[in-house]
Amino acid sequence: MKEKIIAKAGEMFLKLGFKSITMDDIAGEMCISKKTIYKYFCNKEILVEESVQLLHKEVHKLIEEAISKNFNAIAENFEIRRMFAEMFKSSDTSPIYQLKKHYPEIYHNALKFQIEECEFCFRQNIEKGIEQKLYRSDLNVEVYVKFYYYLIFSINENTPSEAEAETLEFEALEYHTRAMATADGIIELEKQLKNVNI
Prior knowledge:
- By secondary structure, the protein is mainly α.
- The protein has a single domain, classed as Tetracycline Repressor, domain 2, CATH 1.10.357.10.
- It contains ten helices and no strands.
- It has helices at residues 2-16, 23-30, 34-40, 44-68, 73-87, 95-102, 104-131, 141-158, 162-180, 183-197.
- Helix 4 (44-68) runs antiparallel to helix 5 (73-87).
- It is elongated, with a radius of gyration of 19 Å.
- The mean pLDDT is 89.
C-alpha cells in the first residue's frame, strides 16, 4: 500500500503541483481513508520527499532506456528530451520550480542527486559525440558539462510554466549542440530539428 500511495501522490504532485495537493485529495483519489495515508507518512513533507525519490528513479530509468537505443549522440539528446516532454506533459507548472518554492529543503537534498546524474549523462553524451566526430575534438568536456547543466537547471528553477520551460529547454538543446558540433554534427542537428517540427 505504501508504494501505491507514493506512486499516486507523485502522479498528482506532478500534474497539479506539490503545494495544491492535500492528503485529503490523495485519499479521495485512491478511495482510502486519510488515516491509512498517515499510517505510512506522518506528514505531507515525508510523502513529497518519497515521491521525489521515486521520480528520480523513473528519470534514471528513462535516461538509461534512451541510451540503450544506441542512437548517435545528437539523436540521443533529442530522444531524451522527447521522453522527458512525454513524462511531464500533464504538468502545468514546472515540478523543479514548485519544489524549490514550496519545499526548499527537499529540493536541496534532491539537487545533490540531480547534479551527479545530469553531469554523468552530459559527460557521457559529449564523449560519445566526440568519438563519433559529431562534436569537436578540442572541446573542454568539463566546461561544456557545466555550461549545459547550469543552463537547463536555471530554466527549470526559474520558469513557473512547464510549457515555457519545455520550449526554453528545446532552444537550450539546439544552442548547446550548435556550440559543440562539427560540420557533420550540424547536418545531424538540422535533421533532428526537422523531425521535431513535423
